[in-house]
Design goal:
Mean pLDDT of chain B: 86
Shape of chain C: globular
Number of helices of chain C: 11
Largest interface: A-B, 27 and 32 residues
Low-confidence stretches of chain B: none
InterPro entries (chain C): AAA+_ATPase, ABC_transporter-like_ATP-bd, ABC_transporter-like_CS, P-loop_NTPase
Radius of gyration of chain B: 21 Å
Strand content of chain C: 15-25%
Order of helices and strands of chain C: HEEEHEEHEHHHEHEHEEHHH
CATH class of chain C: Alpha Beta
Pfam families (chain C): ABC_tran
Order of helices and strands of chain B: HHHHHHHHH
Keywords (chain C): ATP-binding, Nucleotide-binding, Transport
Helix content of chain B: over 70%
Distance between the termini of chain C: 36 Å
Structural class of chain B: mainly alpha
Protein name (chain C): Putative ABC transporter ATP-binding protein
Largest sheet of chain B: none
Organism (chain C): Nitrincola nitratireducens
Mean pLDDT of chain C: 78
Oligomer: heterotrimer
Chain lengths: ~150, ~260, ~280
Amino acid sequence: MRMRTMEISVGFFMLIGFLALVVLALNVSGLNLASKGTGYKIYANFENIGGLTTRAKVSMSGVQIGEVTRIRLDPQMLMAEVEMEIYPDVDFLSTDSSAMILTSGLLGQQYIGIIPGGDVDVLAPGEFIYNTQSALVLEDLVGKFLMNQVSE
Amino acid sequence: MIDFMQKLGHRTLSKLAAFGRSGQILFQSVVAKPAPVMMFPLLIKQIYFVGVLSLIIIVVSGLFIGMVLGLQGYTILVDYGSEQAVGQMVALSLVRELAPVVTALLFAGRAGSALTAEIGLMKATEQLASLEMIGVDPLRRIIAPRLYAGFICMPLLSMIFAVVGVWGAALVAVDWLGIYSGSYWANMQQSVDFMSDVVNGLIKAVVFGFVVTWIAVYQGYDCVPTSEGISQATTRTVVYSSLAVLGLDFILTALMFGDL
Amino acid sequence: MEAVSPTTGSASSMLEDVIVEIKDLTFSRGDRPIFKGVDIKIPRGKVTAIMGPSGTGKTTLLKLIGGQLRPDSGDIVVEGSSVPSLGRRDLFVIREKMGMLFQSGALFTDMNVFDNVAFPIRVHTQLPEEMIRDIVLMKLQAVGLRGAYALMPSELSGGMARRVALARAISLDPNIVMYDEPFTGQDPIAMGVLVNLIRRLNQALGHTSIIVSHDIQETLSIADYLYLIADGKVIAHGTPEQLKTIESEQVRQFVEGLPDGPVPFHYPAPDFVEQLMHKGVSR
């Protein structure tokens, strides 16, 4: 009889433990199994990506439509090449869309914002966005501001 | 001088011998052919003692640590106008560091010391020797279920700690200090990565559980079977396993999150 | 120091069927030698007692027979197999034929009396539960504690705990039962019960009993053959009657319980008066 209550409580304990794992996965880390690895990839070259990292979000009008999956330096163009994975239901990005690196808040994380263009053709998987705008680097900005002050 | 060298050598040798014996115990109890039929009820019992009975202390301390983190994080972050990031801060520090480390420290104090004292007392009352004489290997009968229970319970307890902590921080930050709950959870979900944060925290918890139970079981099995010896062994369990946890935490963090 | 043995002829005729033979055993703990060449032969089916003052390593001897310790040199042969050379697995096999009653009883504190006695049976056999129940009740009946089967070890008195431990030691009907100080710390009634029990069980079950003890009167009353150990050596052996006739001072001191003799009352110390005068207690 004592063994039975013990077994029940152990079962309960294991259940709570695995529930905790599920909560951590879904609620805390926002793991979304459904959209993982099913999107298509597009690329963009930037002169300067600032502090952009992999897993940064890719958004359009503030809505997330994908994430950065890989960043590397293109040895021919000497520019950063960013690989993005776009959710499969977002299949309407026109070829003349532009991508820019934005910062959420003053010191927040950097992400890629995509502004759609007017072309009828849409981006196919593996294609490049040519119209890009680099990250806003705070030091450059401060530097320019100070130069202006001095020259005045 | 020569005396000092001799003492140093003697201490080094005896520590090495102790380490070797502990490895032997670990090997013989874990790798030795398990007897599953006998093993299962014993394992259940040990999970009960090691895990279920540690649940309350884990939940309570997780709740309070989460609440403190929420409060402290808020008061610091509000100066920079980024109090929305409190969820992110709390979740990252809990999942990566505090949950495995604090759980392991509590586990060493709550379950580790109890394991050492129990096994030490079994040795002092000749129960281990009498098992041997009955023809049952005490390493398999007594030590192995406790080791396995430790491996199983630590990660579960650590995850429960993290969840309760995040929830406690939400209680303070969202319900009390009035941060918008959407930004609390969204910031958290955006910055916490399942593979690199949750799974790495889990790996830490498994390693800590392994080390703490190993130390506890070894200290009990190798203690001097007197009341003084048992109390010393229990103290050593808590001290050694706390030091081991903190030291290993640095190494694991450097391996996982540092770009080495 | 030569082992004093009376008429060797009668002794060797008794020792024809030897179940445990210890040959030239030496063993030391750290730097302290405990046995310096001990030879003991234990006859089958008899009660053999190994006696000696405290601290002569009698319990160590039982552990050596059970293979829990390994000798520095010499050999221990139990039923034809040499214990020190056995591997871990074979050791557990041979231990199934041995039962051991520990000084403290060593009952498993997390099981009740019934489960304690049933434990060796459950571990080593696949018997159905009803049969185990019958065997356990039989063993408990033999030690007079059938009524206490549901008690936990913490609820037993010292004498009862030792009887339960005895029931557990004989639950698999071993060939050899070893008793480690069975009479220590028992009241006279419990002592009488145990003496009786050991004798009766030995006759009824036909196993070999090895008793390690320093309670001279009780042991003399049940043992068929005795070995006296002091300073790491066998100083005398023989039947109780033979032992009483031995003239050696050391044997006399032990058998008659004299406070001073070859085993000195005083731990080695400098001269008493001199130490008092010079206040020379170095710490």
